Amino acid sequence: MSTQKQPDDAVITAYKNAPARTITAGGVTYAYRELGPKGGIPVIFLVHLAATLDNWDPRIVDPIAKSHHVIAFDNQGVGASTGEVPDTIEAMADDAVTFIKALGFDKVDIFSFSLGGMIAQALVVKYPELVRKLVLTGTGPKGGKNIDKVARTTYLDMLRAKLTRSDPKEFLFFNRNATGKPAARAFVNRLNERTVDRDAPISVKAFRTQLKAIKKWGRSTPADLSKITQPTLIANGDNDRMVPSILSEDLHHRIAGSELIIYPDSGHGGIFQFHDKFAPAAVDFLAR
């Protein structure tokens, strides 16, 4: 009588179950999680300001991981990764490339949100041969109007959150109205679905250095985005208080052939509020 043996490498497609891993390169040990079927072009996730591995919405990651090798990681000095957070977006992009190359990849798709989208732009401009497709969400271009005001908005909403004992992301990412408030709570609850191997929180020093880098990015000379020839999907809510929604339009006009999705009655976290619409759109974009 033969018993069927379960394969040891059964594919994990739920982000909450993705194993915590590390890899060391350039003197930095990077913390990362991977899931989805291996082979093909991997999708590297670049996360937002103050975020760690625990900040990705599983309703976005899981649908993509059904058919793609997905890798999320903490950049240098963030969460469980060692080293110091660099004070420029360009240096953060160099770190991301060090991590990607350490894993042995020479072609990747990039999925990015907010600060991650700034890093993605710097990366694709400097290392165009590395990127096949680009997803830019809740982000803006170098030199973009009012990006340098992110720190002010962030500190204000952190204070508002403290006074109401809420998560700052409920204020920063969502409208404070009848649709935004429940969407915010649902999003924050989803971030707690993973119960084991949680990431280390970001340090105050690392957070402040990221803010400094964003301010520099906002006050810098605009980059030449006509250099970006990769298929690009841009998405945001129509009322982004952190990185003004108009900057998503700006990216769309400056990146030839790019696609733009703006979700109604939503803020910086529009893709999370409309995950049921956005996740299939992202899966379709990456599959084409």
Automatic annotation (TrEMBL):
It comes from Polymorphospora lycopeni. GO terms for molecular function: hydrolase activity. Residues 42-272 form the AB hydrolase-1 domain. InterPro entries: AB_hydrolase (IPR050471), AB_hydrolase_1 (IPR000073), AB_hydrolase_fold (IPR029058). Pfam families: Abhydrolase_1. It comes from the Bacteria. This is Alpha/beta hydrolase. Keywords: Hydrolase.
